[in-house]
Records
---
Amino acid sequence: MEEYVGKTVQLIYNDRNGNVSIRNIRVISIVKDVMKAYCYSAQSIRLFYLERIVDVEVIRNVGRDSA
């Protein structure tokens, strides 16, 4: 997962209640089993537990101008 630090990715994630969400995030850091990231939909920094991540895919031009 360290390869995603500094990148914008689409994350498929299971929350603590078992709900699946798809989020576009910018990964800030990974420490132990937690990913710290800016979540574009929540417009805030969030923590994601690595064990709950289903899939990650690098994406581009999310949350910023492409010009």
---
Amino acid sequence: MSEVTTLEQQADSGLMLEPDELESWIRTAEEQCGLIVQGDKKMLRALEELVLLRRSQAITTLIGEPGTGKEKFARFVHVLKNPSRPFVDVNMAGISEHLFESELFGHAKGAFTGANGGRVGRFEQAADGTLFLDEIGDMPYDRQGLLLRALEQRTFSPVGDNRQLALKASIVCATNADIHHAANIGKMRRDLHDRLCRCVVVIPSYEERSQEHKVSVIRYLTRKIGSALRCPELTLDREALQLLLQYPIDGNVRGIENVLERAGTYAVARGQTRIDMVHMQRALEEVEKSQDSSPQSTHLLSQLIRQAMSQGLHSTLEPLRSKIVRAVLEHAGGKQVRAARLLGITRQTLGRYLSD
């Protein structure tokens, strides 16, 4: 990124860091975390917010859609705060309820049936590094109190052990769930919600970002994929790049990477070092095909559409709209971008219909 570009973005975005310092952090994010922020005001602002808050002891909560780079941002927080210490990540939605305390806090030998040895939990593993609690918005309600107590008191006890261990790690949480709504309807404890909302950074979806930024991401991913395929000279031609930029991709940056990986594999398999239109078109078709083959509620969707047609549009649209949108969303495998495309509406309109 040129100094002129950085200065322009700083002025336009209301950024507070000096250009040289901002440039340095942008390079650090890319080189150490694989995080690309240049070319987009919202991404630059998110990075700057983390830099400005790096001395805060509050929990950092990252909110963004799946595939937007929440883990990369979490690793950037780690670089800011504890670069030489452990980075421990935990999928909070994937922990079995009956193993929740043992997984997070550890357990002593003989603490329960089958505990033939002690276990060091994730909190203790993180030591004075960074503990990344991913998908925190989807954790079971009846386990939220245990987590909240540890976060508030900054101490925890392994199961079957009377010792109180200090929680020394910096805490970073991430979710794609609407935690405000979850708290309002009783799916998240209000006191946990309030603690998570002290230092929130919102990560924009890939769709919201500028074209300049998207090009930077695509070129970075092409280099990364080329290295993995032992073809470091792998590039992307202009036509293939334009096709990828115009094509609505499910899965945000992760979806882009999936397409590029397939297209790159096709190119290298043919002894070529440039991804062209043929490779890109084939990759997009195959990715689209794999999404269409997943289990869907096609019967329900057809039923709803037939009902709307038989009863007349105006009399059936309002009561059926929400059901149709939800059915199409399920048909699209839960991918909002794909569902919106199938319905011919924007993702924002889709979100509004889903909340009706």
